[in-house]
């Protein structure tokens, strides 16, 4: 029988990676991430369990303990990975919830598998949760879990948090099994979103699609109250500041600038290679500014880190071709021997290197067409110390609601993006420092721990 817990997190992915040690032994290692950092203390305090997929296909590893957390793997077959994860989650729901910036693909067999896999996650949670326990379900891959779990275990307190945007009614209505998804979410006691607007979309949808009544952000469902609310996620600000201040990271930042030929302006982009992130439009803006002579090669250089992501999904394969063609075009037209205009890394870099890049960059370009929050924007700010630096930020990133001192732009307007980038490049150091200080102060109080506490507090979970 599974070990039982009073606090259970259910997420598509477990916060662990399997690594092979030098002597060939396989071991689990925590995979660092904001979510696990925020939830770690709560999980440890409640001898909590994290339910999720371990990464491979076929039989799941046996449950195990790691750094005070009970890890409970859920299996996925190759076919389930393709249909539930790559299909329904990442080719249907992901694009639909991001304003359909790519056309969502709807397939019956994908949603059937999505149901089956959601049922499996719900079953696992029902088995490990103690009487009256709190279960916190994460993100768009598991939207049916709250109601499936409530059917099996009405005694539980269930929270759900959506990390990505929640679309307006007109868009959501495209989805073939829309009512089932909505009912799935309504199985929770509290449904959290990144933005107030998303929470509003949700309560209005409940009325529109199911005729449910709501007062404020509270929906009446079968004699229960389901609360919706905005809980903007954040980063471990202190840890990020500490990392960036590390002398080795600072030295590496200097070295990066030197390797780039000590240009006047280093422009940086860091994203998963995803079509929502606006990587192409950012490259294009840079190319046009070079062509117009408003930026000059040697003086301005761009680094784009595009971490490989969802590589078997067609939209992502097409995007990679487009981005790499644009990089090739810019370097072909404007680069010189030994001085490329864009340094493009289609690889994951380690967190020290990432912090050094943030510390080295004069301008950070975060230009998503739509983004739930965008943690890269927040990480950049935390890494700047008192050195200023400019954040160019899309109005369509959740982070734009909080980071009002960024250089905000509309990513759908190429001239606007170019003008904003130029303003950021030309801004006075004193102004940049002033803007940065305001945003840094905000992030020190609004960190990821505060995010987790405010959600759990609203859900009515007692914490130390
Ligand atoms: C989803 C929502 C929401 C990226 N490349 C490397 C690397 N990263 C890290 C960044 C950052 C994270 O990945 C990306 O987070 P984002 O928030 O920017 O974007 P998504 O992955 O789309 O996340 C988003 C988030 O969930 C949380 O709710 O903000 O809106 O879409 O932490 O630093 N880290 C390292 N090497 C890389 O190459 N070490």
Number of domains as seen in the coordinates: 2
Structural class: alpha/beta
Bound molecules: GDP-alpha-D-glucose
Fourth-tier CATH superfamily name of the largest domain: Glycogen Phosphorylase B
Give the spatial strand order of the biggest sheet.
5-6-4-1-7-8-9-12-11-10
CATH architecture of the largest domain: 3-Layer(aba) Sandwich
Would you tell me the overall average pLDDT?
A: 95
As a percent range, the share of helical residues equals 40-55%
Note the beta-strand portion. Answer: 15-25%
Largest sheet: 10 strands, mixed
Total beta strand runs = 18
Individual helix count: 16
Q: Give the termini distance in whole angstroms.
A: 29 Å
Can you tell me the residue ranges where pLDDT is under 50 for at least 5 consecutive residues? none
* CATH fold annotation of the largest domain: Rossmann fold
Please give the radius of gyration in angstroms.
Answer: 23 Å
Approximate shape: globular
Protein name: Trehalose 6-phosphate synthase
GO biological process, one term: trehalose biosynthetic process
InterPro entries: Glyco_trans_20
Pfam families: Glyco_transf_20
């Amino acid at each position: 029988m599974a070990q039982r817990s009073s606090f259970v997190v259910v997420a598509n992915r477990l916060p662990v990676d399997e690594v092979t040690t030098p002597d060939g032994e396989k071991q689990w290692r925590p995979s660092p991430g904001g979510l696990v950092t925020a939830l770690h203390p709560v999980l440890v305090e409640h001898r909590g369990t994290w339910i999720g997929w371990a990464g491979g296909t076929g039989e799941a590893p046996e449950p195990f303990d790691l750094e005070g957390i009970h890890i409970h793997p859920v299996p996925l077959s190759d076919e389930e990975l393709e249909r539930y994860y790559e299909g329904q989650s990442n080719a249907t729901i992901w694009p639909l919830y991001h304003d359909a910036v790519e056309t969502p693909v709807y397939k019956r067999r994908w949603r059937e598998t999505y149901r089956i896999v959601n049922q499996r996650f719900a079953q696992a949670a029902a088995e490990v949760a103690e009487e009256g326990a709190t279960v916190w379900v994460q993100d768009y891959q598991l939207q049916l879990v709250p109601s499936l779990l409530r059917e099996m275990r009405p005694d539980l307190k269930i929270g759900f948090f959506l990390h990505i945007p929640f679309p307006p009614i007109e868009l959501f209505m495209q989805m073939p099994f829309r009512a089932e998804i909505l009912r799935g979410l309504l199985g929770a006691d509290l449904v959290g979103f990144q933005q107030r607007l998303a929470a509003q979309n949700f309560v209005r949808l409940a009325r529109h699609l199911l005729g449910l009544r709501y007062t404020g952000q509270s929906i009446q469902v079968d004699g229960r109250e389901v609360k919706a609310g905005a809980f903007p996620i954040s980063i471990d600000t202190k840890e990020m500041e500490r990392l960036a201040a590390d002398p080795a990271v600072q030295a590496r930042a200097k070295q990066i600038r030197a390797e780039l030929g000590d240009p006047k302006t280093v422009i940086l982009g860091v994203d998963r290679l995803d079509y929502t992130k606006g990587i192409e439009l950012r490259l294009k803006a840079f190319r046009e500014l070079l062509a117009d002579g408003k930026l000059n090669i040697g003086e301005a250089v761009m680094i784009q880190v595009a971490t490989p992501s969802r590589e078997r999904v067609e939209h992502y394969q097409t995007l990679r071709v487009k981005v790499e063609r644009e990089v090739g075009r810019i370097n072909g037209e404007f680069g010189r021997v030994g001085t490329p205009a864009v340094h493009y890394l289609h690889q994951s870099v380690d967190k020290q290197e990432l912090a050094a890049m943030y510390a080295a960059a004069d301008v950070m370009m975060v230009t998503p067409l739509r983004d739930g929050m965008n943690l890269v924007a927040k990480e950049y700010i935390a890494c700047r110390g008192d050195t200023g630096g400019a954040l160019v930020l899309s109005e369509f990133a959740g982070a734009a609601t909080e980071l009002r001192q960024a250089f905000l732009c509309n990513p759908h307007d190429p001239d606007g993006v170019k003008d904003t980038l130029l303003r950021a490049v030309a801004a006075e150091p004193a102004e940049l420092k002033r803007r940065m200080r305001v945003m840094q102060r905000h992030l020190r109080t609004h960190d990821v721990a505060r995010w987790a506490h405010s959600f759990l507090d609203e859900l009515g979970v007692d914490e130390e």
